Write the structure tokens for this entry.
Amino acid sequence: MQDTRTLLLPTDFPNISRRQIDTLQLNLGYLCNMTCSHCHVNAGPTRIEMMQDSLIDEILRFLDYQPIQTLDLTGGAPELHWRFRDLVKAARLADIEVIDRCNLTVALEHGQEDLLDFLAEHEVTVVASLPCYSEANVNEQRGKGVFEKSIDVLQALNERGYGTDESRKLHLVYNPNGAFLPPAQDQLELDYKKHLFAESNIVFNQLYTITNMPIQRFGAQLLAKGKYNEYMTLLKDNFATSNLEGLMCRSTISVDWQGYLYDCDFNQMLEMPMQLSRELVAGNLIASESNRLHLSEVIKADFEGLDIAIGEHCYGCTAGQGSSCGGALA
């Protein structure tokens, strides 16, 4: 698979720095029951990279010391990790919101029969991938039969109060199925709600539109089709300075399955680690030989003011309405 990393590192993107962190995003591993064309982590059923128990324990220590308000669990399919439920329980006991980035079909896997009941019991926010309300488009992007399975799980979530109960939020995620920007989030949300309710009696809270990043699987497709430069031009031509203020990397730390720290999930996939600084060293950092920060080294560190590692892909988060793990910025 062709890699876009070397093309993305030289950049004229504006310098940005951190505010106080409030969100810890964990990639629990790349194991997934699906193989989606837009997946920027190349997750799938054959991946074996998974976060180890000792690191899970370090994460629980981190939550004790840092002002984390939201624990954002991703993967792969995060629910397939054997400590997923331990993390959820510990965070909820500490009154930390937990987000489960769910592909929906994982709830139909063997051993996950009680997953939806568990999520509802602990009032976990479900952010579910549904790249379109059209069956044909979803199956094209995520595989044959995925749309029907997704509808079944969404209906089961509704039965448990998701989308109607204030404490059980259900958000859907739209990704374009090609080299173009998402449409206006507000209008597309109305379309989703209209179609899903009329056709399947499904309700949900919000729609998040997320721009496809020119990295990993999608980046390789752009290169193979000769559309990489065209797509990057599209992102740059639609750059909006106003989106810089709301970028998720300014208040989020992304942790990979090995425990190394990144400014965002996309930097993680590009192996662009969080940058070292004198201030962080003063915060009891044990500098590693690899020049990467590990979670165990920064349990009590202050991250505010640190420079954020940037690249050409950052234009994906600032194009048009902007894009983040919480949808459009504008």
In short: Residues 12 and 190 are 36 Å apart (CA to CA).
